[in-house]
Amino acid sequence: MNPHIRRTSDLAEFEKTIGFSFKNKDLLTNALVHRSYHNEHRGFTLPSNEKLEFLGDSVLSLITSLHLYTQYPEYQEGDYTDMKASIVNTFQLYEAAKKINLGSYLYLSKGEQDNNGRDNTSILADAFEAVIGVIYIEFGFDAAYSFVKKFLFEDTLDKIVADKLYLPAKNILQEHYQDKFKKLPAYKVLEESGPEHNKMYEVGVYDDDKLIATGSGKSKKQAEEQAASNALQKLGI
Predict the structure, then answer these.
(1) pLDDT for 64-77, tens place per residue?
(2) Neighbour count for residue 4 (Cβ, 10 Å)
(3) Rounded Cα–Cα distance for residues 169 and 185 (Å)
(4) What values do phi and psi take at 75, rounded to 5?
(5) What residues form the annotated binding site?
(6) Whether 129 is catalytic
(7) Ramachandran class of 208: left when φ > 0, alpha when ψ lies in -120 to 50, beta otherwise
(8) CA of 235: how far to CAs of 84, 186, 217, in Å?
(9) List of domains in the chain
(10) Would you say 37 and 109 are in contact if contact means Cβ atoms under 8 Å apart?
(11) Annotated binding site for Mg(2+): which residue ranges?
(12) What is the pLDDT of residues 115-158, one digit of tens each?
């Protein structure tokens, strides 16, 4: 047996967790291979999971769009865009990956493992998309949909929609001020730095003349959104 291949019991345990039994075990294994693994295991024949991640990302996009369209018909296209961004992002995919203990099954280099790679947000999020990709290949769209619905949407998407957490921070802060104070917060550029082609902006958000919070970004819009997000945290919203 190739020493690099996970024990059958390991894969069986993972299959039980995700609810699918693969005929093609190499396909499932491939979803678990981080590119760093090849740096120390030149003879390992399976490629990294990057192409499967690419496929899974596309499948996930369609699943999410279809789910939003069918389950939340009262909303508009712009709402769907914000909702989709709030559920299909690195943090939410990372949280979903933790539900299935995905980090325990990954093929990582020793260096990546020592660098806490099994709990790395980006690595886990990418691997989760790769798993969606292999489920789609072996079992089809409906199976991939069920997997995403169970581990990504369940208990999360409904809350995001009900509590309007999909709204940009600026919108949430604006609604808060309109409802509570019958006025709007104001934004002011505090500093611009860097060359013209790569500027950084620092923006403050104000309650009249009182500074609530600041934010920075590569555009005024990005800096304002960060400032609003920081303001929401300070206000406990």
Answers:
(1) 999 999 999 999 99
(2) 14
(3) 12
(4) -95, 165
(5) 53, 126, 129
(6) yes
(7) left
(8) 26, 16, 21
(9) 8-162 (1.10.1520.10), 169-235 (3.30.160.20)
(10) yes
(11) 53, 126, 129
(12) 888 999 989 999 999 999 999 999 999 999 999 999 999 989 99
Question: What's the token pair of residue 113?
Answer: 């493992």
**H/E run at residue 211:** strand 210-217
In this prediction the pTM is 0.77
As a whole number of angstroms, the distance between CA 108 and CA 117 comes to 7
Structure tokens that stand for 157 in this block: 């998407």
- Token pair, residue 66, equals 């279809």
Which residue in this structure is represented by tokens 């990057």?
50
Question: Is residue 57 flagged as an active site residue?
Answer: yes
Q: Give the model's pLDDT for residue 7.
A: 56
Instruction: Report the amino acid identity of residue 125.
Output: A
- How far apart CA 214 and CA 16 sit, in angstroms, is 47
* Per-state percent for the chain, helix, strand, coil, to nearest 5: 60, 10, 25
User: One of 10, 15, 57, 95 is an active-site residue; which one?
Assistant: 57
